[in-house]
Amino acid sequence: MNDTYFIGKLLDEAIEHFGPLASLYSDDMSPGEDVYLEIPSQGICFIANDKSVIWCVQFFGEGKDNAYSPYSDELYGGIKLSDSRQMVRTKLGSPYESALGKEEVGDAAQCLYPWDIFDVPKYNIHCEYSYDASRILLITLQASNNSMI
User: Fold this and answer.
1) Which of 76, 81, 101, 137 could form a disulfide with 64 if both were Cys (CB 3.0 to 4.6 A apart)?
2) Are 140 and 58 in contact (CB under 8 A)?
3) β partners of residue 46
4) Closest CA to 111 of 100, 96, 121, 101
5) What's the CA gap between 26 and 94, in Å, rounded?
């Protein structure tokens, strides 16, 4: 099963596939809120809309969140979480948006991480890198339009 398989699928399919490894939560159970299916032991988090359709998958690298094991399989376009920013750009081309970093309030302190967003057929791929851009901390793969969800 590849990394894009669950995008556009119902959340129940992912729950059935991952079984007891998965935990489900929502920040707010109000109508219209996203629902998260976390599989920390696999380094994956699915995000589904209020109709239980998965529109986004996050793949965690080492150091992004200690609650998650690093995702170990290859990703879209042959990307690996061990790839540097330059290697990702070689594999996916030029990003349509990027930054040297963004401020993010963490548990202990503010951090500055470089990132790129790539627009590829059917998907947007957001790569957040380590401080020195030598590896990927988080990849967010999402449907690029509502036709998939």
Assistant:
1) 137
2) yes
3) 37, 57
4) 101
5) 34
User: 119: which strand partners?
Assistant: 124
Rounded to whole angstroms, the Cα distance separating 2 from 47 reads 17
Instruction: Report the distance separating Cα 137 and Cα 115, nearest Å.
Output: 10
* Cα dist from 129 to 51, 52, 63, 75, whole Å: 32, 30, 10, 15
Mean pLDDT by 10 residues, the chain (149 residues): 81 87 68 82 91 92 89 88 95 87 51 82 90 91 69
Q: In what order do the strands lie in the sheet with 44-48?
A: 23-25, 35-39, 44-48, 54-60, 136-143, 123-129, 110-120, 97-105
Q: Residue ranges of the domains in the chain?
A: 11-148
Q: What is the predicted pLDDT for the residue at 79?
A: 92
